[in-house]
Amino acid sequence: MDAWSVLKALWLFLPAYVANMSPVFTAKLLPKWSAPIDGGRTLEDGGRMLGDGKTWRGLAGGAVTGGIASTLIALGAGPGSTAFFAGWDFGYGDGSPLWAIFLFGAFVGFMALTGDAVESYFKRRTGRARGAPWIPFDQLDFVAFGLIGMALASPLLASGWIVEMVFLDWIVLATLLIGTVALHLLVNRVGYWLKLKEVPW
Ligand code: CTP
Ligand code: MG
Known about the structure:
Layout: H1 3-12, H2 14-29, H3 56-77, H4 98-125, H5 137-153, H6 161-167, H7 170-193
Cytidine-5'-triphosphate is lined by residues 23-24, 27, 51, 53-55, 57-59, 113, 116-117, 120, 123, 130-132.
């Protein structure tokens, strides 16, 4: 068991975590940009396709914040860093250009919130109202889609970097799939205490 892999997992997945948390902030920042992705559409079962909680603003904000997160991570962990996270820089020190690292994070953030929207589709199909909890899918949707996003966007980065750092390290994958559920439940509760979220899950 390599404890560093646990930290590496949490660190490298920050673009997805940040993107996943960003919609509540972008909603406060741009309350009027609330156009829902499903355009208000209702399906044959009488439920909304996705619901008013899934907006274009949230999706776009997730991409932007994911890109900012990966860029800051690369700058903080890149050449010259002496912190414990030195080298966990999306290959910045191995030749990944900064613009490609930004695009990588943006795509991962976009995919994280796509997963969130896909989950809402299934929540509506199973009769769950907007905001109703659905543990553990609430937590795993963006992890699964964030990982798929990392795999798809990996050619943007220095050759083989993501594969070696994430996909060949089973501790990283296990941390993301198990640790994230616990972390997400904790973060949402803190968001509720801070009155950023209306429900504690
Ligand atoms: N949000 C958004 N656009 C998105 C995702 C989230 O604007 N693509 C905002 C909405 O204001 C939403 C809040 O972030 O209410 C919390 O997100 P989430 O918990 O994912 O949505 P819910 O309202 O709980 O809806 P659902 O039941 O569909 O998950
Ligand atoms: Mg919710």
